[in-house]
Amino acid sequence: MTDTDTLRTPRASRAVRATPGAAVIASVALVELSSGITQGFLSPLLKGLTETLRVTAAELNWISIANLLASVAFTPVLSRMGDLYGHRRILRWNLAIVLLGSVLVGFSRSFGVLLAGQILQGAFAGFFPLLVGILRNRGGARGKDGDGESRRGISFMVAALVAGIAVGLVASGFVARTVDSPTAALWVPTAAVGLALAVTWPLLPESAARPGGRIDWAGGILLCVGLVAIMLGLGMGGLPGWEWTSPRTLGCLVGGALVTALWVRVELRVAEPMIDVRMFRRRNVVTVSLVTVTFTVPMIGLQVANPVFMGTGPEHGYGLGLDPFATGLAMLPNMLAIAAGALAAPKVAAAVSDRLTLCAGSLLMAAGYLASLAWHGSMPLFLTGTAVAGLGIGFLQHSTRTLAVESVPHDRTSVGSGINELLINVGGSVGAAIVLTVFAARTPAGETLPELGAYTTSWTICAVVSLAGAALALLYRTPKDREARS
After folding, report:
1. 362 or 11: whose pLDDT is higher?
2. CA angle, 265 as apex, 262 and 267 as ends, to 5°?
3. What are phi and psi of 353, to 5 degrees?
4. 259-287: average pLDDT
5. Who contacts 129 (Cβ-Cβ below 8 Å, separation ≥6)?
6. Do 264 and 233 contact (CB within 8 A), yes or no?
7. Residues 376, 117: contact at Cβ < 8 Å?
8. What was the pLDDT predicted at 49?
9. How far apart are CA 26 and CA 31, in angstroms?
10. Gap between the Cα atoms of 337 and 397, Å rounded
11. Residue range 191-238, pLDDT digits in tens
12. What is the SS3 assignment for 411-423?
């Protein structure tokens, strides 16, 4: 008897129903907390790493790029494996991969080792799709009540993720302030992910049903190679030896585009594709995908820039002059606003529609970045701007993830969520590459920190991209079946 046959028996269904709902929710929250801590712990340490690891602020953007490139490789495969072989089983392996990466980061004493650990940590992108699969398959709800429960669950998961980022910020900043070792705070994610793996191992239920089938390895490999090549070209473009017109940069960009085009051709001919590209013929799928990319360009693009700005002192002519712990605290308004936006998004969408919620999120982000541009010399006004942008990010974090899941059948829940996570990584990689290019161009020779113009240019670009996202959001149309149920 196969694993799939076993999970289709009544015994497997009873095992899923026997798992207390509170234990499932607590486990989901703990995994997302660990994911957030893994994503947030480095921000307060970035300024210090320029001295400890002897790298420039521009080179630090490679932390985000390496992490995101790995996420692109991990997400589609882990998502599809979860739908086929069980979301809990694959989640356990996923947690183990991230834990291994976290241990490597903790031991790192060079920038290369740190990047290697970040690559393995990039597997955290698989957490969200696999957890959505567990939640959505646990009760098998359909219709209006099922949609509402799914939206509330995703809202809760986003809030837990953001709470984890906030915990990571404060925890690593506190360790950096109180422990003499300059790299002691690098162990923070190891503790978080290890705890999540140990606690959730016996608690999370397995999916009640599996559709059967196989993994489209050819499609997965082509997708990973194509996207990684494109992002490598974007990330390195403009740096010495990687000028935009150099053969290696053009080779990555053009070669990656050709491989991605080949992937589309292969997926159209495969009976069980890794990602069904026919979905992108639908107007709403394309709209949500584009909005996802536009909001993640600034969200992740500024992940390094803003903390470095906060940690830069007056001797450089700009910055807030905060130490690592204070930097972590200064980032809390943004984190709390993201959580509040994610929790409020379901009610906002019910009151004004999904389309206007998407549009409002993008407009709030643009307003926040313009505030940073105008008032970066005042700490209260600068932090207020980050909070306004955070509220918009919260709206979009919830809305895009929810609409991505609702666009696919239940037996492909993780794949639907995985596509959205993939697009988050794509947008984030583009954003990190843009900021890296701006920082590299505005960093004087022999210096580790850029001129103020690097930040003002980055905030301006992020505001423009957010406004473009607001315009794209207006193309979304509420499905007729949802209108009939509302």
Report:
1. 362
2. 110
3. 100, 155
4. 83
5. 75, 78, 79, 82, 413, 414, 415, 417, 418, 421
6. no
7. no
8. 75
9. 9
10. 12
11. 999 999 998 888 777 766 665 567 778 888 888 888 888 877 876 776
12. HHHHHHHHHHHHH
Closest CA to 7 of 15, 411, 18: 15
Query: Residue 243 above 60 pLDDT?
Result: yes
What SS3 string covers 389-414? HHHHHHHHHHHHHHHHHHCCCHHHHH
User: Which class for 336: exposed (0-12), middle (13-18), buried (19 or more C-beta within 10 A)?
Assistant: middle
What sign for the dihedral angle of Cα 123, 128, 133, 135? Answer: positive
The CA R_g of the chain, rounded to the nearest whole Å, is: 22
Q: What is the mean pLDDT of residues 244-254?
A: 88
Q: Which tokens in the block code for residue 46?
A: 């970035």
Cα distance between residue 63 and residue 85, in whole Å: 32
Alpha carbon separation from 135 to 160, 350, 410, 477 (Å, rounded): 15, 21, 11, 26
Q: At which residue do the structure tokens 């490597």 appear? A: 104
Distances from the Cα of 483 to the Cα of 129, 143, 286, 353, 416, angstroms:
26, 12, 20, 10, 22
Q: What are phi and psi of 144, to 5 degrees?
A: -60, -45
> And the tokens for 48?
């210090």
**Spatial CB neighbours of 32, under 8 Å, sequence gap ≥ 6:** 127, 128, 131, 157, 160, 161, 164
Residues 6 or more apart in contact with residue 127 via CB below 8 angstroms:
31, 32, 35, 91, 94, 95
